[in-house]
């Protein structure tokens, strides 16, 4: 199981700060969050479930954009951090 750490508003939507998810990739992890509809809808956009533009995901403290994006593989010891950040203006 992958350990998922949520921050900010995502904690409120999930009802807890940490989740355990059985997933082989970041994409699969996000798909498995469909059982928490409010959290899933906040993290994704559009009919294909694309990642919302203000969502940051890191695997073992490395931004997934520097890895393989949503196709980044996950192992049972991995820690995934998901943050919804706010833009100033």
Q: What's the count of strands?
A: 7
Determine the number of helices (DSSP H or I, runs of at least 4 residues).
Answer: 3
CATH architecture identity = Roll
Shape: globular
User: Structural class, from helix and strand content?
Assistant: alpha+beta
Mean pLDDT: 93
CATH class: Alpha Beta
Protein name: Molybdopterin converting factor, small subunit
InterPro entries: Beta-grasp_dom_sf, Mopterin_synth/thiamin_S_b, Sulfur_Carrier/Prot_Modifier, ThiS/MoaD-like
Task: Characterise the protein shown here.
This is Molybdopterin converting factor, small subunit. It holds the Pfam family ThiS. InterPro entries: Beta-grasp_dom_sf, Mopterin_synth/thiamin_S_b, Sulfur_Carrier/Prot_Modifier, ThiS/MoaD-like. The mean pLDDT is 93. A hairpin with a 2-residue loop joins strand 5 and strand 6. The N and C termini lie far apart (39 Å). The chain has three helices and seven strands. 22% of the residues lie in helices and 29% in strands. A five-stranded mixed β-sheet has the order 2-1-7-5-6. Strands 3-4 form a two-stranded antiparallel ribbon. The chain has one domain: Beta-grasp domain (Ubiquitin-like (UB roll), Roll). The protein has 89 residues and is α+β, with helices and mostly antiparallel strands. The longest helix is centred in the N-terminal third of the chain and has 7 residues.
């Amino acid at each position: 199981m992958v350990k998922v750490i949520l921050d900010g508003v995502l904690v409120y939507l999930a009802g807890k700060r940490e989740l355990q998810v059985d997933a082989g990739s970041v994409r699969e992890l996000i798909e498995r969050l469909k059982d928490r509809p409010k959290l899933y809808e906040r993290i994704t956009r559009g009919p294909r479930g694309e990642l919302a533009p203000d969502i940051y995901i890191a695997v073992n403290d490395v931004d997934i954009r520097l890895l393989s994006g949503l196709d980044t593989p996950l192992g049972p010891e991995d820690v995934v951090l998901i943050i919804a950040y706010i833009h100033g203006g």
